[in-house]
Amino acid sequence: MLVEKTSLPDVVILTPKVFGDARGFFMESFNQKAFEQATGCKRDFVQDNHSRSRQGVLRGIHYQLEQPQGKLVRVVQGSVWDVAVDLRRDSAHFGQWVGVELSAENSRQLWVPEGFGHAFVVLSETADFLYKTTDYYHPESERCIRFDDPELAIEWPELPVEFSLSEKDQAGSTFSKADVYKR
Question: Active-site residue 118, yes or no?
Fold first, then answer.
């Protein structure tokens, strides 16, 4: 597995080896031992999620204050621009973000640890997005920060369609007023 560090030390890009020929391909999409070696952390994943979205759908910036979720995310069809934001108030990287393209073609996965907000926008006509989480969904503690918050200044890609957001995402908090992790 290829391991790439990002500008946020705890967020890591993992790219499994893909073995392909005229018949198709094989890859080991998850291996606990390899994950622990790549990230330096031991986590138990308790839930797998799968979403399908059309081009321009933007989900996030989501996080849970209680039962924070670490997420190992990947795309199995299409492509997305995936973003992680450090929301740990006492972190040297508080309020910083990193973005990476994940696609079925590049097989990249992004490890978004607990304490980070997460968002993505679909670049392709549609995308199937998979993520493993380290804790269960806890709607009472879910929070959302606006994707276009001027203080975060996330550089979203330009698309031939307008972004499509849920009501929850449209009503997200600004970063300056958001509840964040105190660590």
Answer: no
Q: What gap in Å lies between CA 177 and CA 7, rounded to an integer?
A: 25
Cα(70)–Cα(41) distance, rounded to whole angstroms?
11
The active-site residue out of 62, 63, 118, 181 is 62
- pLDDT tens for residues 147-176? 999 999 999 999 999 999 999 999 999 999
The one catalytic residue among 63, 118, 131, 181: 131
Instruction: Please report, for residues 81, 156, 175, the alpha-carbon distance to residue 99 in angstroms, rounded to integers and kept in the order given.
Output: 7, 9, 17
Rounded to whole angstroms, how far apart are CA atoms 98 and 176? Answer: 19
62 flagged as catalytic: yes
Which of 91, 61, 83 has its CA nearest to residue 13?
83
